[in-house]
Amino acid sequence: MSDQAETASAAAGGSTYEAAGVSIEAGDRAVELMKVWVDKARRPEMIGGIGGFAGLFDASALKSYKRPLLASSADGVGTKVAVAQAMDRHHTIGFDLVGMLVDDLVVCGAEPLFLTDYIATGRVVPERIAAIVQGIAEACVQAGCALIGGETAEHPGLLGPDEYDVAGSTTGVVEAADLLGPGRVRPGDVVIAMQSSGLHSNGYSLVRHVLLNTAGWALDRDVPELGRTLGDELLEPTRIYAKACLDLARNTRTHAMSHITGGGLAANLERVMPEELVATVDRGTWTPQPVFDLVRRVGSVPQDDLEKTLNCGVGMVSLTAADDADRAISLLEGHGVRAWVCGEVSAVSDALEAQAGGTVSLVGRHPGWA
């Protein structure tokens, strides 16, 4: 069909892409608005800018490695995006995406190199898309990786006009000789806890069910225990540990690390524990932030279920040689990450109160929790 015929058809009420709910113009406007943020999240190895079919990264930078291992991770934010949509506040959700991605890489000692994102929405609102990308780019700067590309897809009919979801993938590199993991863990290692910034980006289905649906609390409700509104607490961005943990891996005898996400502390720590050893973690060494106790009390959530769903105040842990513990904690706190020794590693036969069939045992009670 000629351009003139297409114009005549549209004028006569014929079908167009925009009439179907997809605006090319809005998409182009969103790209223009996000460019300023993407430009801030660059590394020297990144070639070109956004707008191409693929992001380019100069892999010759890996020549300095004797045996470079590439690490990759893919993830999303989950139902926390529903809170951002309800509050019409979109510039922090990118930190949740980046945190879920890069901190899965650093547990093996890998440095995040670049990240790509994917935003699906029912209707492209350029300013909203740019706000999401702003958060992603700012978080990439914190993590030290490049935002090398991405995709924004408009899906009318599949998603509501103001609904969206975000996901992404990231790639990093680690020298094979420096790879962290279960094979390095030894009896006598201590478990160092790194404080979370709050809920991070896991368990929001439980949190929303308890506080919003069952209790009927509004997001603008002032909650004295939290010292702010419920919505402000629920949108607290995920802490990004990447640079701190890489510093830890390079400058202490840290043997393994675990990112505490879905499944909670015990399940995620088990992923980096050898079968012949057990890590005993003492709950008495820390008090989780008030939001965790709030969910527990308001929803009458059993502690076991709470600990399998939420991070309960610990967003990352390391398994570090005991005589390096003080140096590790000082290093982490130099990055603004509060840290403390919360447990130790021992042989299964020597572990006190070890749970049968598991390599992590949680003991004691959090101070102030009845």
Name the features.
370 residues; alpha+beta; 6-stranded mixed β-sheet; 4-stranded mixed β-sheet; 14 strands; flat; disordered N terminus; PurM-like_C_dom
Secondary structure layout:
Elements: H1 3-11, H2 24-38, E1 46-47, E2 56-57, E3 68-76, H3 80-87, H4 93-106, E4 111-121, H5 126-143, E5 146-154, E6 164-175, E7 190-195, H6 204-214, E8 222-223, E9 228-229, H7 230-234, H8 242-251, E10 254-259, H9 264-270, E11 277-282, H10 290-298, H11 303-309, E12 314-320, H12 325-334, E13 339-347, E14 360-363
Parallel strand pairs: 4-5, 11-14
Antiparallel strand pairs: 1-2, 3-6, 4-6, 7-12, 7-13, 8-9, 10-12, 11-13
SS element count, helices = 12
**Gap between N and C termini:** 73 Å
Backbone CA Rg: 23 Å
User: What is the residue-averaged pLDDT?
Assistant: 88
The helix/strand order is HHEEEHHEHEEEHEEHHEHEHHEHEE
Q: Widest sheet: strand order?
A: 10-12-7-13-11-14
Structural class: alpha+beta
Percent of sequence in beta strands: 15-25%
Assign a percent range to the helix content. Answer: 25-40%
- Total beta strand runs: 14
Shape: flat
Low-confidence stretches: 1-12, 352-357
For the biggest sheet, the summary is: 6 strands, mixed
Family: Belongs to the AIR synthase family.
Catalytic activity: 2-formamido-N(1)-(5-O-phospho-beta-D-ribosyl)acetamidine + ATP = 5-amino-1-(5-phospho-beta-D-ribosyl)imidazole + ADP + phosphate + H(+)
Protein name: Phosphoribosylformylglycinamidine cyclo-ligase
Subcellular location: Cytoplasm
